[in-house]
Amino acid sequence: MNLNIKNSDIGWHKKRVEKAAILILAAFFVLIIRLFYLQVIKGEKFEELSRNNRIRLQQIPPIRGLIYDRDGKLLVDNRPSFDISIISKDAAPLKQTLANLARYINIPADHLMEKIKKEKGIASYKPIVLKTDIDRDMLAAIEVNKFNLPGVVLTVSLKRNYIYEDCAAHLIGYLGEIGAAKLKDKKYSDFKPGDFIGKFGVEKKYEDFLRGKRGGRQIEVNAKGQMIKVLNTVKAKLGDNLYLTINLPLQLKAEELLKNKAGAIVAINPNTGEILAIASSPAFNQNDFVKSMSHHKWRSLIENKLKPMVNKAVQGEYPPGSVYKIITAAAALEEGIINPETKFRCSGKLQYGNRTYRCWKKKGHGAIKVEDAIAESCDVFFYEIGQRLGVDKLAKYAKAFGLGIPTGIELDSEAAGLVPTSTWKKRKIGRNWQSGETLSVSIGQSYNLTTPLQIAVMTAAIANGGIRYKPIIVKKVCEADGTVIKYNASQATGRLPISDYTINIIKNGLFKVVNSGRGTARLIFFPKIAISGKTGTSQVASSKEEDEDVVKEYHLRPHAWFAAYAPSDNPEIAVSVFVEHGEHGSRAAAPLAKEVIKQYLSEKEMPDLRR
């Protein structure tokens, strides 16, 4: 066997080993440099990315506070809602996942992609909401097909639930998605895109109490983004609960009475100022705002000629008609223009200058005193005393009775109404006041404007002997455990500038309106409860005498008013009823007030009217 090996072969092999060693050393050097780059230079960044891939933060939205009536009957709570979100990091391939999801939720894939693109500032590991409040069929479809929907997450949130649809809609209000402008405001730093916020009513006014505070939890996920375990939790703070002053059975009754009518009913406790019922018709379903309201539905609300989105009790301004005669009578008595025995003769009309001012009763009332003039609503009597007082004296008393100024109720956009004066007309219209205009003012016409709430507050002040109270709509605010953190006590805002003697004369006249044989509201006489009140019919458009009994087009018919309190000798409730284009207060408004009073004072059992 030949063992001789050439030196050239040995050298060749040696060179190959050296080259291999150099390559191995170079590879190790590159690897060390890469590891140094990853662990030292970029280590902090990749550590954060790793943490985000393994540990994620989930927000826990606050649970909004509940709303009750004065007796603890639940009006508004929260219901569970299933929402669909997507975590784009876990959804690869994203286009295919969206195409699969689109089949189950009836939203085109390109629309879903647009939603994701709009949230381009959100980290890829954070969920983006694609659809809220899905129904059971969609929920089942998502659950069954989870295997081909990577990154799609089902979450449970709470949606506002208005138990009695349309009930106290203008008082309670509704929620809406927070706008971009508010999200930039530091005051709303706890809010996130897609959050709902109070937009109207007490939902808006008491947002800071109802809202609660957001919480969160830290969770560990696997490579597929599926939760493994919860590492830490900070509970959300429950929102505070509101107890309104309204009485639910009375509120439901008021709204039932206004069904198929446009108008408002306000019932108030004359001794505290607490609102017992406040209804505006037509109303709207607050739950429509919680869901995704269609453009068609929204337009139907805002274009409705009967204005369901306007709170007629607080925002509607109307001529008060003959209810204003209470002020005219009180002013004349207090100023010494008349005394209880002063009489004026009514022949059915009054000639003033070159114009004839007519009484509603064509044959006239004959010689009549103030109490009977109130009871029978004699226009001529009030023409006589009104022109003796003058417009500015009437305005002084009207404002002291609470007209022409907001009542201070805790609701947005309260209307002030209008009390005309000679100075106001000169400044606003540029013409001097004409003495004949005062006659129209004295019976609640001309430029006079008031709200049903103002009339209720005025009536309550007469009922209690002269104290005007600020209307209260929220009795108290309580934490979830029942601890009272805010209590709204009665607050007097003024006193009627008339003596007890004058108040008693006015009260006698109001008692006769219902309880005497010639009173304008004698048809609602009720032997079990003594009711005092005043009818009113306010003209929308002037008409000739021969046309007065002709039924006009709806929008030209007079408005109907009735203001009342009961029991007459010890009032517990004051009521203002306004029926838009209802024509006659005695027929359209007074019967409604009677039913409201009966409901409250008889304490009937509340029907279960949940829908």
Explain briefly what this protein structure is.
The protein has 21 helices and 23 strands. With 611 residues, the chain is of the alpha+beta class.
Helix/strand structural class = alpha+beta
Overall pLDDT metric: 88
> How is the main sheet built?
7 strands, mixed
Q: Tell me, what's the shape? A: elongated
Strand elements, count? 23
Distance N to C terminus: 109 Å
Rg over CA atoms:
36 Å
- Fraction in beta strands: 15-25%
Helix content: 25-40%
Low-confidence stretches: 544-549, 604-611
What is the number of helical segments per DSSP (H or I, 4+ residues)? 21
Explain what you see:
With 611 residues, the chain is an alpha+beta fold. The protein has a domain at 83-142. The chain is 35% helix and 21% strand. The protein is built from 21 helices and 23 strands. Strands 2, 3, 4, 5, 10, 18 and 19 form a seven-stranded mixed β-sheet that branches. Strands 12-11-23-22-21 form a five-stranded antiparallel β-sheet. It has a three-stranded antiparallel β-sheet with strand order 1-8-9. Helix 13 packs across helix 16 and helix 15 (379-389) crosses helix 18 (435-442). The chain is elongated. It starts with 6 loop residues before the first helix and ends in a 9-residue tail after the last helix.
Can you give keywords for this protein?
single chain, 611 residues, alpha+beta, seven-stranded mixed β-sheet, five-stranded antiparallel β-sheet, 21 helices, elongated
